[in-house]
Amino acid sequence: MVNECICLVFYEGVQKVLMIFISSPGLLSDFPSDEKMKRSRTQAEHRRYQDLTRK
Question: Which stretches does the entry tag as region Disordered (predicted)?
Fold first, then answer.
């Protein structure tokens, strides 16, 4: 049950981040390559996951 909760919060957070990325073309132009996008996104997700597990 706790794991489901964390996954839901995590998923919602990722969705919000994606919406911000999609809604602001200025941010997208800072990441010319898909690889860079993926790397920065996974780093953010990892940090968020660490924050969730620390609590």
Answer: 33-55
